[in-house]
Design brief:
alpha/beta, 6-stranded parallel sheet, about 45% helix
Length: about 375
């Protein structure tokens, strides 16, 4: 309930559709809030869905996958770049994203939960100016490290994925809370490997590789797909089964045709699958680009991964964290991808250690934890 009234809390979950991860985290937290407080009124807001910014999502992803990647990498973690960039992004965003701000204000939220730095910056700016009355602004980081553009002041809560990420906050900056990266409900209790394999008609002794190669936005997957074009024919000689999530019909058809008869593995090319947790639970090894949410889902399922570069900014940070923890192997060059996958598939003890490292990283209850913190902060409990 709203403090001092009988009205239910109004909670806005704001994200930016740069890739799908920020939206998935917002939806996961929304679901957890609805479970914890069924009377709360929640609404999702994509800050890039209106006006001239509506086409930015895919093009913005090119900054960390394309030619601008090196520059993006240089400024991503820079405190100086963040100090300069935060007010600049806030000012420009306020002008360009005025329709998003108007819709957010019209909702009259008591709480704003931001899963991307841009809506967090805009919420802080508008509350300071008195145009937004939200009592609580919470930032939920969706990668394994915190980049310099997240607002460090003006937010009431900062939810980060790990203790290592929390240590990057300096003296005088707000104390973050370690929650993990929120994942969807299906990843809270994934099936065991035998159960998952039985449901997919996969033999218990098969060597299974799962490839996550697409979503609704193809641009972020361009580098990974180029690597796969070189590596998959050779990987098909080493695995018993390859399951490839293609993301779109055109790529699914292209890969089905390219890999027909390649190697001796059984190949399944799928455009879209809702229950990805079953596929992850059935696999021995995943091949992914180093996105924060996809890797958190693999970690939640205890799935060792090969993360494929080149990667810049948050993706490079994700790759370093995952490889440093022992949950992933990081491959920057496509010509060594197949060799890395083959080596891992042949080394059961190494795969087991990687699975144990995933267990050390996993925080499958992150969405529930964030929901509890948000509701507690909003109600003063």
């Amino acid at each position: 309930m709203r403090t001092g009234t009988s009205q239910p809390l109004r909670i806005a979950l704001a994200y930016a559709a740069v890739g799908s991860g920020h939206r998935l985290v917002a939806e996961s937290v929304q679901t957890a809030i609805s479970v914890a407080s069924p009377v709360a009124e929640t609404a999702l807001f994509d800050c890039l869905s209106r006006g001239p910014a509506s086409a930015w999502g895919s093009s913005a992803a090119l900054t960390y996958t394309g030619a601008a990647g090196a520059l993006y990498d240089a400024v991503w973690g820079s405190k100086l770049a963040g100090a300069v960039g935060r007010p600049l992004a806030s000012a420009i965003g306020s002008a360009v994203l005025s329709q998003f701000i108007a819709e957010l204000r019209a909702f009259e939220p008591d709480v704003v939960v931001a899963t991307h730095a841009l809506p967090a910056l805009l919420a802080v700016r508008n509350r300071r100016a008195g145009r937004l009355k939200a009592r609580t602004i919470a930032s939920v980081v969706t990668d394994w490290q915190v980049h310099a553009y997240w607002p460090r002041h003006g937010v009431d809560m900062m939810c980060v994925p790990s203790e290592a990420a929390a240590l990057t906050f300096g003296t005088g900056e707000p104390r973050p809370t370690v929650t993990g990266i929120p994942v969807r409900e299906q990843f809270l209790a994934p099936p065991s490997k035998p159960v998952a394999r039985a449901s997919l008609d996969i033999g218990s002794d098969s060597r299974v590789v799962l490839v996550l190669a697409g979503s609704k936005q193809a641009a972020p997957y361009a580098a990974l797909r180029r690597s796969l074009a070189l590596a998959l024919p050779e990987i098909a000689k080493q695995a018993d089964e390859i399951i490839l999530l293609a993301g779109d019909d055109e790529y699914a058809f292209e890969m089905s045709r390219a890999l027909a008869g390649a190697g001796g593995s059984r190949l399944r090319v799928l455009r879209y699958v809702e229950d990805v947790a079953v596929l992850m639970a059935a696999a021995d090894l995943g091949i992914i680009k180093p996105g924060g949410v996809a890797s958190a889902e693999c970690v939640a399922c205890g799935l060792p991964t090969v993360v494929v570069g080149p990667a810049f900014g948050q993706e490079r940070a994700n790759a370093r964290v995952l490889a440093g923890a022992g949950a992933s192997a990081y491959v920057e060059r496509p010509d060594v991808l197949a060799e890395c996958v083959g080596r891992l598939l042949a080394d059961t003890p190494v795969l087991e250690r990687m699975r144990e490292a995933c267990c050390d990283l996993r925080r499958p209850d992150a969405a529930t934890r964030v929901a509890e913190l948000v509701l507690g902060c909003a109600t003063g409990s």
